[in-house]
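To: structure desk
From: M.T.
Subject: fold request, one chain
Message: Could you run this one when you get a chance? Sequence is below, nothing fancy, just the single chain.
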Amino acid sequence: MSTQYVLNPSAGPFSVFAWVKGGAPGQVILSQDKGMDWLLVEPGTGCLMAGLKSDSRLGRVLRSQTAVTDADWRRVGLVWDDSNRRLYVDDVLVAEDTQEGLAACYGGLQIGCGKDMALGSFWSGLIDDVCIYNRAVQP
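Reply: Done. Structure tokens follow.
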């Protein structure tokens, strides 16, 4: 599913939460068209990660050690408070780091596929109740 432009991640704090079930390693939950993959599952491990990062040489993805590709419903989330990224699974903090800022993106959001709609990026499970906030939310 694609939307019109919703949010520029470099413009300030925001949060995104969604319910997911199933999926497979390497697939994407939420991305921004021709931008970055916001929430995705790490290839090989099935663990939640955030691909949304700074465009500086210090920018890096944020990886958790928590798998989300099982048969249970999982509430996943990414919170950006203008300096820290936090990943949540079932409202529990599973990874966090500090970034200089996030890269600017102006495309629409894509739910269930990667930023370039690559064949292997399409989510093979279920996604429900995607919520985006223009502030840092504590689950």
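Reply (cont.): The mean pLDDT is 94. Let me know if you need anything else for the meeting.
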